[in-house]
């Protein structure tokens, strides 16, 4: 017979779900996810990240305008000019490195936005392109303000029922002959609509999203630092920009 889940844990999942549902700002949503994630890991030590592992950061990440506004302000306040220049320098180096898909994706402005999202999504599964925010020690250099997707990965279940987990976690489940269906995770059917309502809009009603790499490139100054204020994404003419409608249906 399956072991009964402690009542306290069930109540906490419901509590964090409601907290996410009622979030009125992105930081509110992040706070709910932070607590929910801690609960998920406490109940399922199989989902503990190994120290120094950054496998889920070997990708380019999409971030909405409001998310970027938070990241931009934090980078201006909390990182030195040298640190910001180093991060932007990584994007430029990647864009120019032969074989790195970033240059290809940055040139997709004239393709259908869904083709761009699909290409990045496929790249997530098949192509390694280290996130520019990842330091040489495999630590996220913007961790307190990292985007939504980075917070959900490894901790949440898609509305389809699939757990959003990396190969390392999947390997552990196989080794222990366990199924991801048996663990209670954060619920993307709650968090995702909230994210799309709160994360895309800063200066536009459309809800606009692009790669973190693009946010960095388009907000850099001639000295390679980050400008004092972010430029509205609605003004973008060079790099691909998408709306929430361009993401795959989130069922
Ligand atoms: S923003 Fe941070 S957590 Fe997210 S992929 Fe980049 S390095 Fe990893």
Work out the helix count: 10
The largest sheet, given as strand count, sense and whether it forms a barrel, is: 3 strands, antiparallel
Helix content: 40-55%
Number of strands: 5
Beta-strand share of residues = 5-15%
The set of bound ligands, ions and cofactors reads: iron/sulfur cluster
**Shape from CA axes?**
globular
- Gyration radius, rounded: 18 Å
Characterization of this structure:
This protein is mostly helical and 251 residues long. It has helices spanning 7-21, 26-43, 65-78, 81-96, 101-106, 113-126, 148-152, 167-175, 188-198, 212-218, and strands at 62-64, 156-157, 186-187, 208-211, 242-243. The protein has one domain (22-47, 54-246). It contains ten helices and five strands. It has a three-stranded antiparallel sheet with strand order 1-4-5. A two-stranded parallel sheet has the order 2-3. The longest helix is centred in the first third of the chain and has 18 residues, at 26-43. The protein is globular and about 50 Å long. Iron/sulfur cluster binds next to loops.
Helices, strands, pairings?
Layout: H1 7-21, H2 26-43, E1 62-64, H3 65-78, H4 81-96, H5 101-106, H6 113-126, H7 148-152, E2 156-157, H8 167-175, E3 186-187, H9 188-198, E4 208-211, H10 212-218, E5 242-243
Parallel strand pairs: 2-3
Antiparallel strand pairs: 1-4, 4-5
């Amino acid at each position: 017979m399956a072991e009964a889940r402690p009542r306290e844990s069930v109540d906490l999942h419901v509590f964090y779900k409601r907290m996410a549902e009622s979030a009125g700002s992105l930081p509110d949503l992040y706070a709910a996810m932070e607590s929910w994630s801690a609960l998920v890991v406490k109940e399922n030590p199989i989902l503990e990240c190994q120290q120094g592992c950054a496998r889920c950061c070997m990708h380019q990440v999409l971030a909405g305008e409001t998310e970027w506004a938070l990241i931009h302000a934090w980078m201006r306040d909390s990182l030195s000019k040298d640190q910001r220049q180093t991060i932007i320098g990584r994007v430029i180096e990647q864009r120019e490195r032969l074989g790195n898909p970033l240059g290809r994706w940055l040139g997709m402005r004239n393709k259908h936005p869904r083709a761009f999202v699909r290409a990045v999504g496929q790249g997530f599964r098949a192509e390694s392109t280290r996130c520019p925010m990842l330091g040489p020690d495999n630590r996220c250099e913007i961790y307190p303000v990292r985007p939504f997707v980075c917070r959900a990965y490894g901790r949440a279940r898609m509305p389809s029922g699939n757990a959003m987990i990396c190969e390392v976690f999947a390997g552990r489940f196989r080794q222990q002959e366990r199924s991801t269906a048996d663990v209670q995770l954060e619920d993307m059917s709650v968090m995702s609509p909230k994210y799309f309502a709160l994360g895309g809009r800063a200066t536009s009603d459309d809800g606009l999203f692009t790669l973190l790499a693009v946010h960095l490139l388009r907000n850099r100054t001639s000295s390679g630092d980050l400008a004092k204020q972010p430029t509205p994404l609605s003004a973008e003419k060079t790099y691909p920009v998408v709306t929430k409608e361009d993401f795959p249906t989130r069922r």
